[in-house]
Amino acid sequence: MTEAVLLAIKKIGNALADETAKQLVAKLSEKVSNLIDLDDKIDHIRKQLQTMNNVIEQIGTTYLTDKTVKGWIEEVRKVAYRVEDVMDKYSYHCLQMVEERFLKKYLIKGTHYVLVFSQIADEVVKIEKGIDQVIKLKEQWLQPSQLAHDPYTEMERQRSQDSFPELVTDEDLIGIEDNRRMLTEWLYSDEIDSKVITVSGMGGLGKTTLVTNVYEREKLKFQARAWMVVSQTYTVDDLLRKLLRKIGYTEQKGSCNIDRMDAYDLKEEIKRMLKDRKCLLVLDDVWNQEVYFQIRDAFQSSHGSRIIITTRSNHVAALAPSTRCLDIKPLRDAHAFELFCRRVFYSKRNHECPSDLKKIATSVVDRCQGLPLAIVTMGSFLSSRPPTQYIWEQICNQFRTELSRSNHVRAVLNLSYHDLSGDLRNCFLYCSLFPEDYQMSRENLVRLWVAEGFVLSKENSTPEEVAERNLMELIHRNLLIVKETDELGRVSSCMMHDIVRDLALCIAREERFVSANDYAAMTKMDRDVRRLSSCGWKENSAPKVKLPRLRTLVSLGSISSTPTMLSSILSESSYLTVLELQDSAITEVPELIGNLFNLRYIGLRRTMVKSLPDSVENLSNLETLDIKQTNIEKLPRGIAKIKKLQHLLADRYVDEKQSKFLYFVGIQAPKDLSKMQELQTLETVQANKDLAEQLKRMTRLRSVWIDNISSTDCANIFATLSNMPLLSSLLLSARDENEALCFETLKPMSKHLHRLIIRGGIKGTLKCPVFRGHAANLKYLALSSCHFGEDPLGMLASHLPNLTYLKLNSVHSAAILVLPANSFPHLKTLALKQMPDVNEIKIMGGALPSIDALYVVSLSKLDKVPRGIEYLRSLKSLWLLGLHKDFRTQWDKNGMHQKMMHVPEVRV
Questions:
Q1: Does residue 854 contact residue 875 with C-beta atoms inside 8 Å?
Q2: How many CA atoms lie within 13 A of 480 on its CB side?
Q3: Of 650, 647, 705, whose CA–CA distance to 679 is shortest?
Q4: Terminal CA-CA length for the chain
Q5: How far apart, in whole angstroms, are the C-alpha atoms of residue 341 and residue 378?
Q6: Are residues 757 and 890 in the same domain?
Q7: What is the DSSP letter of 461?
């Protein structure tokens, strides 16, 4: 790379006529010539960085107790971070130098590039000394014995497979009686495919407790039984030997010694002993499917036998038929409180909580979020403290600290963390940057992980696809909880259990990965902090915080409208990669943001920002710009210079009083939009006469949202959209609800199109090519401010049978809506809102068999209860709001509350 820079410098020097400029080029050329071996040095420290990261991943800090080792790893991590920084700086400036227009610019301004490579070379020398220093420290001070793991975690991780869990009495089983009954019934089922039963859930939910109780109750009904804890470092031979001994094997004179048997002989002996005998086998805490596959053939001829597997992994849970998978959930509030009181007030009659402590006790239980491990731990802790309001309030205020001090809690949860690969650990710890109970968007997480460099392309997979797989892996391991899914069944949003987040925060701080601080701690933090979360505090004063190594700033809803602290951070944190300020009160972005050469992600969603500074055009590494729901109307002129930009998310809300038709409007399309050929997401831009031509060159687009489409422009725009090969999400919004758009020209070739949103533009029939040609692919459809002379439900049901989401808003239609028999077999959500013509809804037999949510809102003429609504047995949420004044009378008269008892949420 340095040689290429040198050639570019000489080339420009020969082309310049100005003598001063030539002298500057000569001086710069001499400097770079002296650094000709810089490429080799950078490559060398890059390899050393990989070695250091491997060491950190292999040893970690989770299981270490020796402070000297932890201190040494901290020094290794500091050096690794410095290597990462200088590599980014070097790569950026080399790329800038080889582009002649940048070189000319800086030659005119002065000696910028004369100094930059010298600075990099000086930093490399310091880094090499730092690497030598950590190597010497290891040789001088560290012994192999000091790498001993935490004994409590080791005890959990390497529990002897001859051991048996603590026995649990029936009265200790709070809130899981139904699970116990179900599990017991499965043991004696006559179904052919019921040999394997799985019990799954996150660590600490009580899987082993439940199975232990059932095992003790039922084991005598099986002629052979065995309970085995499967460690993360099991061997097949050892498992088979232990199993053989547990089912009663005794060595006979002249027989082969069991310790000399290989896996084949061990399995044959197990088959011999289990012939014509029913066996109950429990494999506790299984981490991968291979355990079962490696031993299952030993049970093939064992009729009536059952294998119960407990696991934290959904992949392992899938070993059983879906009818034999028990997914353990957190305890409900009443059961959680009862379990807590049994532990705290174990010696009191009826375990009753004193009235003066109920409020605090409820607070403690709520923070445990139904996790029995946390409830029992805090309950046992409080049982040894004086039952006074003052003492309990102190402990409640230190809840996180007290729980993290529990060796047992940390050990159980650390097992899940330690089982993760290096990239999964990074993704997991990153989630702790967000506040408690925060719902993390799948799309945001994926883009953030890519920006951070946690995931790279693998074979034919893009970094985004690898990141999505990582997200699903964390969910399958029960380290993240799914909150919402989208129309394709993908995770839409997820969150962390508070106790798991506390674990992640503790580890992240120990490993110098993340610092999540309140306002008071900001000025006291380590200057070398790598990732900072300041969610939840407000900027009342303006401290100047200097964080030169900062890579990530996440400040959701925090920074004030006078962002002095933000300016301070941006001026000092030259390596910043992620800037997430969603929901903050910030009104402007400092001009100096353009100096952040490493910035890959900017999040300003739902802020009060009105414009972006022109300097953003310098952010050549920017991949995601999220300015949705801001006050920004147009982008800087130079935005098209950002060639790496992949996701442009931009729109602004308007007052509903100003527009009955639109809730948000797009921004002006950049003049040179076609130059942004890496764009995959373009949401939302206003249509203009040049837009169709610009879009033709943007072949990577997957999601396109266009606003303000006129009848004169629509044919060209629709024709261009029809030829996009990767199009998956499309929003088309007419200039106003009376504008008629030519949807006959919209014939998308893409087989990926699954989401379609149309606002205005349709007048008359719904028989458009886009509906007829995408029946198999279209899953999500939202129509607003359209005028139909027919019943849209019947027509859509015949053309789009695979929809999972359908919304009709401010739609003029026939007075009677009919959902035909067996229509919409896959529809999960149906929303009907502000349809002024509708006075009756009929749901025919077999319609909506999979419906989860039905929202009928602001249908002012609807005075009758939708016919057949009581037969929607899969409903989980039903809203019937803002209807005719006589509707409630009809609802009560027909006794609908009783008929809809099966629906968890009903709002009328």
A1: yes
A2: 30
A3: 647
A4: 69
A5: 11
A6: no
A7: B
Pull the structure tokens for residue 185. 């019934």
Residue 155: the pLDDT is: 46
Cβ atoms 550, 532 nearer than 8 A: yes
Q: How many angstroms separate the CA atoms of 861 and 3, rounded?
A: 77
Cβ contact 228:324 at 8 Å: no
Within 10 A of 244 (CB to CB), how many other CB atoms are there? 19
- Mean pLDDT (the chain) is 82
* Distance (Å, whole) CA 320 – CA 522: 50
User: Are the C-beta atoms of 613 and 594 separated by less than 8 Å?
Assistant: yes
Task: Let me know whether 216 and 315 are in one domain.
Answer: yes
Q: With respect to residue 387, please indicate whether it lies within any of the assigned structural domains.
A: yes
Whether 134 is in a domain gets the answer yes
Which of 494-503, 533-542, 595-604 comes out lowest in average pLDDT?
A: 533-542
Total domains in the chain come to 6
Closest CA to 694 of 674, 666, 680: 674
98 and 160 share one domain:
no
| Judgement on whether residues 72 and 88 belong to the same structural domain of the protein | yes
DSSP per position, 303-323: TT-EEEEEES-HHHHTTS-GG
If you write DSSP's letter for every residue of 187-221 in order, what string do you get?
HT---TT-SEEEEE-STTSSHHHHHHHHHHHHGGG
DSSP output for 252-277: PTTSPPGGG--HHHHHHHHHHHHTT-
Query: How many helices and strands in the chain, by DSSP H and E?
Result: 31, 29
Q: Average the pLDDT over 588-595 and give the result.
A: 91
Q: Are residues 161 and 281 in the same domain?
A: yes
With a CB cutoff of 8 Å and minimum separation 6, the contacts of 490 are 442, 468
Given a cut of 60, whether residue 44 has pLDDT beyond it is yes
Helix spans in 431-533 (H) = 442-452, 463-476, 498-510, 519-522
**Whose CA is closest to 214, among 276, 249, 165, 247?**
165
- Biggest alpha carbon–alpha carbon distance for the chain: 101
Instruction: Give me the mean pLDDT over the 484-496 stretch.
Output: 91
- Looking at the DSSP bridge assignments, the partners of residue 579 are 553, 602
User: Within this chain, do residues 310 and 292 fall inside the same structural domain, yes or no?
Assistant: yes
Tokens of 881: 């709001």
Residue 312 structure tokens: 């934290």
| Statement to judge: residues 59 and 159 lie in one domain | no
Domain limits for position 16: 2-148
264 shares a domain with 206:
yes
Residue ending a domain, among 480, 510, 540, is 510
Cβ–Cβ < 8 Å for 187, 258: no
In three-state secondary structure terms, 584 is: coil
CB 698 within 8 A of CB 679: yes
Q: Is residue 221 part of a domain?
A: yes
| Residue 29 tokens, joined | 């050329």
Is residue 230, in this structure, part of any structural domain at all? yes
